[in-house]
Amino acid sequence: MLKKTIYIALISLLPVTAISQTPVTLQECREEALSNNKKVQTSLLQVQKAEAAKKEATTAYLPTIDGSANAIFIPDLEELRQFGIEKDNLQLYQAQISAQQPIYAGGKIRLANKMASKGVQMAENAREKQQADILLETDEAYWQLFAMQEQQKVVKRFTEALDSLEEQLQATYDLGITPKSELLKVTVRKNDAEMTALEVNNAIRLLQMNLAHIIGRSVNAELLATTNPGTNQKDKISPDVSEISGGVDSRPEINILENQAQIKNLEKKVTRADYLPQLGAQVSYGYLEAPDIAPGSWNINAAAQLSVPVFHWREKKHKMQQAEINEQMAILELENTRELVTLEISQARLKLEEGLERIQLARKSLDEASETLSEVEISYNAELNTITDLLNARVAHQRSEASLVKALSDYEVLKTKWLKAIGQLNAGSEAQQNNEKF
Known about the structure:
- There is one protein chain.
- The protein is an alpha+beta fold and 438 residues long.
- It is 66% helix and 13% strand.
- The protein has helices at 2-20, 26-36, 38-58, 108-174, 180-215, 241-250, 252-273, 315-381, 387-421; strands at 22-24, 64-74, 90-104, 223-225, 278-290, 294-307.
- The strands form 2 sheets. It has a 4-stranded antiparallel sheet, with no helix packed on it. The chain has a two-stranded parallel ribbon with strand order 1-4.
- It is elongated and about 140 Å long.
- The two termini are 36 Å apart.
- Mean pLDDT is 85; it is low at 1-19, 231-236 and 427-438.
- This is Outer membrane protein TolC.
- Keywords: Cell outer membrane, Coiled coil, Membrane, Signal, Transmembrane, Transmembrane beta strand, Transport.
- It comes from Marinilabilia salmonicolor.
């Protein structure tokens, strides 16, 4: 009796909870996740950092201009008398501004700018990858919540049907027509349904907290998933080799590794440039004054410096070997990742096609379970079936409903995984929405 009272109290609270929930669509959750998620914000800062590094690299083409000033005072300097200077101390004032310009650095400045540009591209690719990861994580959390909400509805309908059946049996039991064992069978089954309802409610709360955390809302927010899964299965996927190869090239992971391999090639060229002649020029304009010794004057100086490596005990050869090995390792990693991504795309395609089949089978099972339940109810009312047969039919129908909801939700996640696998999942992609009831 106490358990029944608790159950009635929980059911009475359900409408209040529903009112306090905040409806959210899948697209809203995606947009909030991309705007608020800390990982995405960090990836955006990495792009800004790479762009700043690129701008820094371009400044190497320009001359550097530096200014300096010195004031020197040396007391009790008797050595000045040796030069015929009647002073006991030395004062010296100097100021200078100079400009230095590299003329030829073996191509290192140009190569450094290319590497900085590759760094920006890699940061952009990393940002795209992080966004795709967050979108997939958001979709998984959203559809898990949606499936559990639908499961809650199924359990509620099942419990209401058991309530009605229990009332009927209680009436016939009171009249002495139905044995108590038949009534107890329904009561036991209803107790199981009440426990299931409690577990589903707790699962929904946890899933709400998980989704709220991902999209940057308070974990106490009670979210209500309102986007229905797509149910149009006419546009089946047909195998296309070009789609797989194009998907590999569209993956940000592949683009990152391609840029890394190109950077290793540029680093090899930089290593070679370290052993080429270096030529630079400098122009300075300065002021020098030593009171009572030399009057102050301004002077212009120009200088050029040429550095030519001569002999470094085969250091260049060993460094070039290391650079070439690094490049080969980057190329091997790229090729291996290409193969893994191709395999991932093929697996995602098979899973997506399997998801379609699961929906069709779930629909067929639900139709059969509905037909069976209808026939068993008629037979039970005609006293041709037992209460056990009726309960089993209701349980089978409940499971079929739950299986269809899960199949539809899982298919939406599989679509997201497929788009991510072929590199087409981005901030502008919208989930297909279909209001067809199931």
